[in-house]
Amino acid sequence: MIQLVLSSPFLSQDLEQVLRYRQDADLLVLMQDAVVAATAPQWCERLSGIPLYVMGEDLKARGLSPRIGMALDMAGLIKLIAEQGSPQTWAG
């Protein structure tokens, strides 16, 4: 399953909850304000070892560069959803 997180981990508990309840085979996608987690050292450490994708457009819009995860564009997200099925969305 795809776990899709939209809210900043500094303003919401969504990412914390995903980490608590996700299954080993789940993919994690950070988009909108959640992309900040891929740049913050404390979150990068916690996200290490998890299949992680980060929306490139959202990083660019915020002037950020990820330290962890694979960049993903909208076409890539659609492809992941087509392959994996509907995501579980966490949006604060």
Automatic annotation (TrEMBL):
Q: Which domain of life is it from?
A: Bacteria
The family database entries (Pfam families) matched by this protein are listed as:
DsrH
Q: Which InterPro entries match?
A: DsrEFH-like, Sulphur_relay_TusB/DsrH
The GO cellular component terms are: cytoplasm
Name the Gene Ontology biological process terms: tRNA wobble position uridine thiolation
Protein name (Swiss-Prot/TrEMBL)? Sulfurtransferase complex subunit TusB
Where is the organism placed in the taxonomic lineage, from the top?
Bacteria, Pseudomonadati, Pseudomonadota, Gammaproteobacteria, Aeromonadales
